[in-house]
Amino acid sequence: MSVARRVPGLAHLRHYERRWLRPDVIAGIVLAAILVPQGMAYAELAGLPAVTGLYTTIACLVAYAVFGPSKVLVLGPDSSVSPLILATITPLLVTGDPASAIALAGMLAVLVGLIEIGLGVARLGFVADLLSSEVRVGYLVGLSVTIVVGQLPKLFGFSTDADGFIGELQAFVDGLGDTNTTTLITGLGVLAVLLVLPRVLPKVPAVLVAVVGVTVASAALDLASRGVATVGVLPRGVPAPAFPSVSLSDVVPLLVGAVGITMVSLADTIATSASFAARRGEEVHPDQELVGIGASNVAAGLFQGFAVSVSGSRTAVADRSGAKSQAAGLVGAALVALLLLFLNGLLATLPQTALAAVVIVAALSLADLGELRRYAEVRPSSLLIALVAAGGVILLGVLEGIVVAVVLAVLLFFRRNWWPHGAVLGEVDELGGWHSLKEYPEGRQRDGIVVFRWEAPLFFANAGQFRDQVRELVRERRPQWVVLQCEAMTDIDVTAAEVLRDLDEELNAKGVHLVFVEMRDRLQRLVGRYGLHSELDQEHFFPSLRTALEHLDHHPPPPPG
Questions:
Q1: Other Cβ atoms closer than 10 A to 534
Q2: Where does residue 274 rank: exposed (0-12), middle (13-18), buried (19+ CB within 10 A)?
Q3: How confident is the model over 502-525, as a mean pLDDT?
Q4: Which residue has the higher pLDDT, 556 or 21?
Q5: Torsional sign, CA 525, 529, 530, 533
Q6: Would you say 38 and 207 are in contact if contact means Cβ atoms under 8 Å apart?
Q7: Which of 58, 91, 113, 492 sits 20 to 30 Å CA-CA off 77?
């Protein structure tokens, strides 16, 4: 494979047009204004020093500009990933040593990156589909609730040591007496700006307005003297690359967390990439996208950062600001680096409660309540699945909630194949074909013939269900022919073949015969390899329902036996 394919940044650089420079610089400046406060806020959400969010931002933007295929996608610290980082590293911390937390988070990012690169190289991007839509929506709703509850003490100006949703909620209620009124008013003011300004002036970056405004106000009013906790002066400079040093015993639990982070971020990554590529008339390369994001995570881990994901909101900002290439991300990274090198005291008076407000607003955006309402209207079972996933996150924890979500997705898949729908069909003149009698009870049937559609692969887990449904139809309707419409049948395994053989013999003894229509050629060859043509009459396989019925009209069934 060509170097340009593996390192798309080189190809982009080779074809860069001078007229793109101005819009890229403008987009980069706008991005930096958003990336700084969000990076710091999501770092603290991950239980890490705020400055690590800036290290992460620089490293991942530069790495993606080199290895990422998209010209506009923006990576960085993410509100859906940071709680997973916190949940993964917290049990491994013996003390509250920030250096230990940074090392663990860095190794976690490296592991996430290696997994993503491996999936991309092996062309396994399809694993993003393992979480169904309703499971993912439910998981994010639960995550939203836990993040908001976890940030409330900081918004109110006090801290708690509780663990778990119930414990944190109880600790927050118990600690309300310790509320710092000035801190709360400040936080609520930032929250109001973040929630209201986008509705009134959608093109104005609300995060920038809120952060600049509250930082200036904090300095002017000396809010620190009134008990308002501030970010303080950031460490000067950018760290040199170094492999994070952790105990070998910590690698396995970190690997478990890395798998969870990968599962959560992949669906967003592929969906966001495809969406913006289609909007810009570009082609998306999911597997190379995984390599690019994996490289960004590895880079973040080597520069005292933490795991990152694609941000749909920041990508939208870059797109609206006119970004033409990843040069916009490089400009943003350069400005963040300049901040750390020469202006590290610029945000010293930024209140911590403002960062809490930024996180809370981001968390609220995770909860897609409109989608839950849609589930309730179109498919209540999907709403139940989403609520179970949300409950798993809220009641069991973030990592445990991932396990619940994945298990739920797998069970959902197997349920739909274990207990698939089998439909008796009737001829509906208005629609010009055969359709389910449950949907169209006016459909006409043929005397002595039952047309039955099996809507799933036929395999060991559902072959018994298939047999029982056919038996029930024979008992109720007493047909001479059971015509199996096989269009939706995508596979027949060895166990199912044995069930078909036994069922055919059982029905033949009662004077009932099986007929197969619209079975795929591959499955017909498979049936032949199973040796079923000696039991299932080869003459009873037809390319269409019409030809099968015409044949049955002119050929009486064989006698029982």
A1: 9
A2: middle
A3: 91
A4: 21
A5: positive
A6: yes
A7: 91
Q: Cβ(228)–Cβ(353) under 8 Å?
A: yes
What is the domain partition of the chain in residue ranges?
16-412, 422-554
Q: Whole-angstrom Cα distance, residue 173 to residue 171?
A: 5
235 backbone dihedrals φ, ψ, rounded to 5°: -60, 140
Counting Cβ atoms within 10 Å, is residue 297 exposed (0-12), middle (13-18) or buried (19+)?
buried
What pLDDT does 2 receive? 55
| 223: nearest Cα among 342, 354, 95 | 354
- Show the tokens assigned to 404: 């619940």
| Residue 408: pLDDT band with limits 50, 70, 90 | confident
Closest CA to 56 of 79, 28, 75: 75
What is the Cα–Cα distance from 269 to 369, expressed in whole angstroms?
Answer: 21
Contacts (Cβ under 8 Å, ≥6 apart) of 397? 87, 164, 165
Round to whole Å and give the CA distance between 62 and 334: 9
124 CB neighbour count, 10 Å cutoff: 13
Give the pLDDT score at 479: 93
CA 91 to chain centroid: 25
The residue type found at 352 is: Q
- CA-CA distance, 342 to 332, in Å (whole number)? 15
Mean pLDDT computed over 94-118: 92
Provide the token pair at 253.
């639990």
Measured in degrees and rounded to the nearest 5, phi and psi for residue 514 equal: -90, 140
Helix 98-121 with 82-89: angle, nearest 10 deg: 120
Asked whether the beta carbons of 34 and 314 are under 8 A apart, the reply is yes
Beta bridge partners of 309: 76
Distance from C-alpha of 357 to C-alpha of 193, rounded to nearest angstrom: 10
Residue 1 has pLDDT above 60, yes or no: no
Q: How far apart are CA 172 and CA 525, in angstroms?
A: 66
Residues 121-170 pLDDT 10s: 887 766 666 667 788 888 889 989 999 999 999 999 998 887 788 999 99
CA dist 198 to 86, 208, 361, Å? 30, 12, 12
Q: Tell me how far apart the alpha carbons of residues 175 and 169 are, in angstroms, rounded to a whole number.
A: 10
Class of domain 422-554: alpha beta
Where do we find the tokens 């898949």? 413
CA-to-CA distance for 108 and 93, rounded, in angstroms?
14
The CA-based diameter of the chain, rounded to the nearest angstrom, is 99
Nearest in space to 35 (alpha carbons), one of 55, 8, 5, 10 = 55
In sign, the C-alpha dihedral spanning 38, 43, 49, 53 is negative
Question: Helix, strand, or coil here: 40?
Answer: helix
pTM, whole model, 2 decimals? 0.77
